[in-house]
Specification:
- The protein has 10 helices and 14 strands.
- Helix 1 (about 25-35) packs parallel to helix 10 (about 250-270).
- It has helices spanning about 25-35, 45-55, 85-100, 120-125, 155-160, 160-165, 190-200, 220, 235-240, 250-270, and strands at about 5, 40, 60-65, 70-75, 75-80, 105, 110-115, 130-135, 145-150, 170-175, 180-185, 210, 225-230, 245.
- By secondary structure, the protein is α/β, with parallel strands linked by helices.
- About 45% of the residues are buried.
- An 8-stranded mixed beta sheet has the order 5-4-3-2-1-12-13-14, sandwiched between helices.
- The chain folds into 2 domains: about 5-80 and about 190-270, Rossmann fold (3-Layer(aba) Sandwich); about 85-185, Hypothetical Protein, Haloacid Dehalogenase-like Hydrolase, Chain: A, domain 2, CATH 3.30.1240.
Amino acid sequence: MIKLIATDIDGTLLPPAAGEIPEDLVKVMRSLMECGVRIMIASGRPYRGLHNVFGFIGPDLIYNCSNGGCLYCGEEFIALKSLGTREDMEYLVGKLRAMGRMFTCDTPSACYVENLSDAIFERSLKAGINMIRTDDVLKIPDIVKISVAYPDGGPDRHRNDPDIIELRERFQAAPAGEMYLDINPLGGGKGTGVRLVQEKFGILPEETAAFGDASNDISMFETTPHSYAVEGSAEDVLAAAFGRIPGPREGGMLAWMKDLLAEYQRGEKA
């Protein structure tokens, strides 16, 4: 029986830029947690923004934030994986500045930006992300992830960006939706957070289910034989997953969780 659900948000659990969480989804998540199932929200977003949006669902919700950069169980801090040394940060930020790229820097409490456009900044605020402007991100401690923005969108642009290729020698880079390329430390990613939770709570890979729709979700798929990509995801995402589910507008995750809840309820009656 599944004891841990690890799910991406935008495009998987919820439609992109969803304004609120549907009541029937909240109800089934709470019911599963009452049955002892642990639910992990795995996202590229920083912790505070995630907790502001999902915290009302329950105190035991697990937050795999900034692509595994930091991990919380409710408000309990579990782990943090820094993006790199001071030298690493100076190298990466220097490269992005020289390229003239817009980028964001995640810490556990907020997302810091130097040069993000007003339109993207405001859209991020509306999505619940705690965005803060700064004149120098290198003054900010505990950066766990940097995201490079591609305002014109298109996954092929950031998958094949020649300016980014040399950065892959020192960092892990994976597309996150249509508009961002997430940069994490080598060996990092959402899968790191899943493995830590499996170890902390004694949950086996076969007792875990992972869901996603982007390349930054693939490391989660590697933690379990029960991995599901959203239909219509990029080919590398589909190829990495065991199965497929419909998207959030078609109620894919909601239906899957209702089926799991029914299994638990049948077991209680047996």
